[in-house]
Specification:
InterPro entries: AKR, AKR2_Oxidoreductase, NAD(P)_OxRdtase_dom_sf, NADP_OxRdtase_dom. The chain is built from 13 helices and ten strands. It has 327 residues and is of the alpha/beta class. An eight-stranded parallel β-sheet has the order 3-4-5-6-7-8-9-10. It has a two-stranded antiparallel ribbon with strand order 1-2. Helix 2 packs across helix 3 (60-69) and helix 2 (32-44) runs parallel beside helix 12 (288-295).
Length: 327
């Protein structure tokens, strides 16, 4: 396992981490026993970074992480997120009193005295600009309640604002082979300012696994059903903003990525890890089997420069214009 410095946070985290949205809820059926097996298998393999949020299963993902990491608080780093329990467009949701409430609730569920990386969870740019959320986070950092802070963003514009106007240690960004825009401007700026990059939705909500056909149906409580066109939240969080049927078609054109790499999953994760600006890629999982498969991405061969160019050209020529929503 390779470990990378997370910006100026002082943390060194595994290049492959795991996100915990799927084990909390909104991804169809899930099983706590399987989730815990997956978390333990990841840690046994050297994974020391997990990403969660207070709204994943109403805090259930945080509680699962508390169980799995008990006694390992100094060696296993947890990033959680806040703000989406309330109205993200209401300035009152960004008050010091409210943020402290969110923080204390997460600390209780995580059974920790300090959060390693506390992230604003996809707040509108206006709220990032017009509230005191960053001075409040600076204050919490000085108090030792959080070790560092970051922002999970939906758009490059939001990310660039954070980079140029705050002391955030990390940006969490939607990024995968079918969502390459951040490579153009956002990632170089983050590197210049020593801000870490956490790559979420690396498999485009499963599109890059190659296991779906255009007529696939998802469970009612799976966001790939209820948010496939952005009905519940930013459309980019589901299939990276691509219409599902078009995404299936495009992913089939990328099947060659798996050549000599075992599977499309391993190839897609390897591609993300190979990007210099990325500190850690955080795929989701539901069970131990998926964790094991994701871990195998660490062993597959790098993409050649010719392959990287081919993928970049494919994105700009065939994919970019189909992505919906602000990004």
């Amino acid at each position: 396992m390779k470990y990378n410095k997370l910006g100026n946070s002082g943390l060194e985290i595994s290049e492959l981490g795991f996100g915990t949205w799927a084990i909390g809820g909104s991804w169809g059926s899930h099983n706590d026993e399987e989730a815990l097996k997956g978390l333990n298998r990841a840690m046994e393999a050297g994974v020391n970074f997990f990403d969660t949020a207070d709204v994943y299963g109403g805090g259930h993902s945080e509680e699962l992480l508390a169980k799995a990491t008990k006694g390992k608080e100094d060696s296993i780093h947890i990033a959680t997120k806040f703000i989406r329990q309330g109205d993200v467009n209401d300035p009152a949701n960004y008050s010091e009193k409210q943020i402290r409430t969110y923080l204390e609730d997460s600390l209780r569920r995580l059974d920790r005295e300090r959060i390693d990386l506390y992230q604003i969870h996809c707040a509108p740019l206006q709220m990032l600009k017009e509230t005191d959320v960053f001075p409040i986070l600076d204050k919490l950092k000085k108090e030792g309640k959080i070790r560092s802070y970051g922002v999970s963003v939906e758009t490059d514009e939001e990310g660039l604002y954070v980079l140029n106007n705050t002391d955030a240690s990390a940006l969490q960004v939607i990024f995968n082979v079918l969502r390459q825009k951040p490579l153009k401007e956002l990632f170089p700026e983050a590197q210049e300012r020593n801000v870490g990059i956490l790559a979420r939705v690396p498999l485009a909500s499963g599109l890059l696994t190659g296991k779906f056909s255009k007529d696939h149906t998802f469970e009612e409580d799976d966001h790939r059903n209820f948010n496939k066109d952005g009905q519940a939240f930013n459309v980019g969080e589901t299939f990276g903003g691509l219409p599902f049927e078009k995404g299936v078609e495009l992913s089939e054109e990328l099947a060659w990525m798996a050549d000599d790499r075992g599977s499309r999953v391993r190839a897609a994760l390897k591609w993300v890890m190979q990007q210099e600006a990325v500190t850690s890629v955080i795929p989701g999982f539901k069970n131990e089997k998926q964790v094991i498969d994701n871990l195998k991405s660490l062993e597959v061969k790098d993409f050649s420069q010719d392959e990287l160019k081919r993928l970049n050209d494919f994105y700009w020529e065939n994919v970019h214009d189909h992505i919906r929503g602000p990004y």
